[in-house]
What we know:
The complex is a heterodimer of chains A (123) and B (108).
Chain A: E1 3-7, E2 11-12, E3 18-25, E4 35-41, E5 47-54, E6 59-61, E7 69-74, E8 79-84, E9 93-100, E10 110-113, E11 117-121
Parallel strand pairs in A: 2-11
Antiparallel strand pairs in A: 1-3, 3-8, 4-5, 4-9, 5-6, 7-8, 9-10, 9-11
Chain B: E1 4-7, E2 10-13, E3 19-25, E4 34-39, E5 46-50, E6 54-55, E7 63-68, E8 71-76, E9 85-91, E10 98-99, E11 103-107
Parallel strand pairs in B: 2-11
Antiparallel strand pairs in B: 1-3, 3-8, 4-5, 4-9, 5-6, 7-8, 9-10, 9-11
Amino acid sequence: QLQLQESGPGLVKPSETLSLTCTVSGGSISITSAYWGWVRQFPGKGLEWVGSIYYSGSTYYNPSLESRVTISADTSKNQFSLRLNSVTAADTAVYYCGRVGSSFVPSAAVTSWGQGTLVTVSS
Amino acid sequence: EVVLTQSPGTLSLSPGERATLSCRASQSVSNNYLAWYQQKPGQAPRFLISGASIRATGVPDRISGSGSGTDFTLTISRVEPEDFAVYYCQQYGNSPGTFGQGTKVEIK
Lengths: 123, 108
């Protein structure tokens, strides 16, 4: 059974970089049938696509975040990671990693989700 | 980007009643690429439906999706106690993928 687990600091200072890693077990991220992505949920409960990555290294970013976000993958560790630069309080959210159920639509339905990790941006 | 508006905001029902949740898009969703999720407190969203009407593995058949273009519906034919939760729609036919604000199904 596919499992995903987010890890990383729960507190980040304003203007610094948020870094999270998603470790995948029960399946390989080096598959041709899926993207692997990040979705965040704000304290008011709204959801927002952050971005995703294909096993080949191809990435998709939400245009609203594109200038600040980088998603990468380490296939040897079966992990993919998120970096978000120049964070502000508006980036405070629960960050989820997930398996995207499509190999050709990078922001398609997320079919498997990690449990999520709360990242708070505060000094 | 496509804005999804879900209604009602809250649906108060008794177990056994029918639930009808609406998701309306600001423009036509390409290929009817519309998904639904269920979220319970403290949990990640659970994937229910893709392509507007295709149930995910393990989703009971009392939960169904329908619609096309700009109007989509999630129906729970007879609400069970485990169905009380928040439901979100997501479109992925137009980039960037976007989510609705959610409908809460609560016990009456």
